[in-house]
Give the backbone structure.
Amino acid sequence: MRGAAVNKSKRIAISLVAGVLAALLCMVYGSSIRSQAEQVQAETLAKYGGDRVEVCVAARDIDVGETLDETNVITQEWLTSLLPRDAATELRRVRGDVTTSRIPKNAVICNVYTKAESHMLEVPKGKVAVSVAVDAEHSVGGAAGVGSYVDVYVQKDGVTDRLCGAYVIDTSEDSGSTREGKIEWVTLAADPEDVKELLGASGKGTVSLTIPATARGKKSGGDE
């Protein structure tokens, strides 16, 4: 009986010690987390100079391709802990920048909205890149996307003439330089001898693109 009581006392003592150690570990871990949070907060405060700071925000929804200025950017106070690292704190920092992605109303202005992404055109060998103005109505409802082989027509005074065939290698929608996702122009990879006609097409009349049935199976840059 006496031995059993001793063993029970030992188990209780061990349990108490284990509990104390667990509590100490939790305190150390919590202290470490708080220390890290305080360090981040201190860095943020050092960067912006206080708990709150005035930053540039969108006064309204700003579409892709708009220029930032006093008409669409205002300043508001924000909690520093909620700010992105590259938040613009002065209008002069972003004035004149062109947006490359849509900025929602009241969003903090930062580099992600004005960062230009590389947009390289791949022009097939032996072809020349030419951009022509065209809307969705005259480009098969916008179906004439990158990689499509199209016939280019120009309409004037009720007369429609076929100019040439070409490959679509870029559109205003794909490049992100259009508003509300509406196609406004396309870049065509055309034969050198067709360039002059294409450049003057918009001045002659309305340009239309069609996708011929024989275009199925054709690949960009392939032989016509």
User: Anything to note?
Assistant: The CA atoms of residues 100 and 114 lie 5 Å apart. Strands lie at 52-58, 73-79, 128-133, 149-156, 159-171, 185-190, 206-210.
